Amino acid sequence: MTNKLNTLQKELAALVDRHANREGTLYTEISNLAFSRHSIPYGFNRTEPPYRIDKPSIYIIVQGVKDVLFGGERFRYGPPNYLVASMDLPIIAEVLEASSEVPNLSCKIEFTRSDILELLSNDTLTGSHRGKSSRSLNVAELDVSVLDAVVRLIGLLDKPMDIPVLAPLFTKEILYRVLHGEHGSSLRQIVTEGTPAIHIQNAIQHLLNHFQESFQVEDLADIAKMSVPSFHRHFKQITAMSPIQFQKQLRLQEARQLIKMEESMNVADIAFRVGYESPTQFIREYSRMFGISPKKDRHRLNKADAQEIDI
């Protein structure tokens, strides 16, 4: 089994290396498949902007190692693993191993909620998950069945005529394997009526749409149709953050985009734009998150030829 896994990993690395032929993120002819290539390591506090996962996805490191900062937790994954993400999340990534000779290579495969619901009609995937909540970001062990299906999906890029028919089938197989895997429940919970995740998603969507605005936890709990203690518990279980921390990440990520893109806006204006009442507090929290003040970060971002990153 180990030999088969190693063989598939080498085959996958060769495929991604050939098709991810430039730095940064590359979207492919397969609509739910993207690659990432980096030849220089980068850290949480370097010039790349933060990243947000907005669809249920899996991420596979084909070559090298990455860390992901999620809430206050750090996840490390490489070729033996894949990352399972189930809902809208603010994420920061760090490439630990990369060089021009051996670049860091990864691929992302996205799924729709309809894809998950379709497979949940299969009796072997049903089960009672009511009252339970799983973390929305997890590292799982990569096995031969998942890897083999991924290799076949990416191999379709060499046969574009086959993509319309076979890509949906291979994607469905990959999702089926993931749903049967150790963290499949994190994807099941986002479409299963009665699970806390269904209700927490509504509160998360409200925060995503109104992160600049202050809120009362009681109002978010009402949106989630939960008591305040239950809402707090499930939100933290699913997102690894409190609602306040989640909002802060969204605000600071938006602020960093504005720092980079809106040169005419001063730091105080950006602070107010993303919802801070105090520029001093904004500068303090920005510096704590990114390791540099907004003013110095703007100078660094403007000097760098930074490229958008993926996990």
UniProtKB/TrEMBL annotation:
<dbReference type="InterPro" id="IPR020449">
    <property type="entry name" value="Tscrpt_reg_AraC-type_HTH"/>
</dbReference>
<keyword id="KW-0238">DNA-binding</keyword>
<dbReference type="GO" id="GO:0043565">
    <property type="term" value="F:sequence-specific DNA binding"/>
</dbReference>
<dbReference type="InterPro" id="IPR018062">
    <property type="entry name" value="HTH_AraC-typ_CS"/>
</dbReference>
<dbReference type="Pfam" id="PF12833">
    <property type="entry name" value="HTH_18"/>
</dbReference>
<dbReference type="Pfam" id="PF06719">
    <property type="entry name" value="AraC_N"/>
</dbReference>
<feature type="domain" description="HTH araC/xylS-type">
    <location>
        <begin position="201"/>
        <end position="300"/>
    </location>
</feature>
<dbReference type="InterPro" id="IPR009057">
    <property type="entry name" value="Homeodomain-like_sf"/>
</dbReference>
<dbReference type="GO" id="GO:0003700">
    <property type="term" value="F:DNA-binding transcription factor activity"/>
</dbReference>
<dbReference type="InterPro" id="IPR009594">
    <property type="entry name" value="Tscrpt_reg_HTH_AraC_N"/>
</dbReference>
<keyword id="KW-0805">Transcription regulation</keyword>
<dbReference type="InterPro" id="IPR018060">
    <property type="entry name" value="HTH_AraC"/>
</dbReference>
<keyword id="KW-0804">Transcription</keyword>
<protein>
    <submittedName>
        <fullName>AraC-type DNA-binding protein</fullName>
    </submittedName>
</protein>
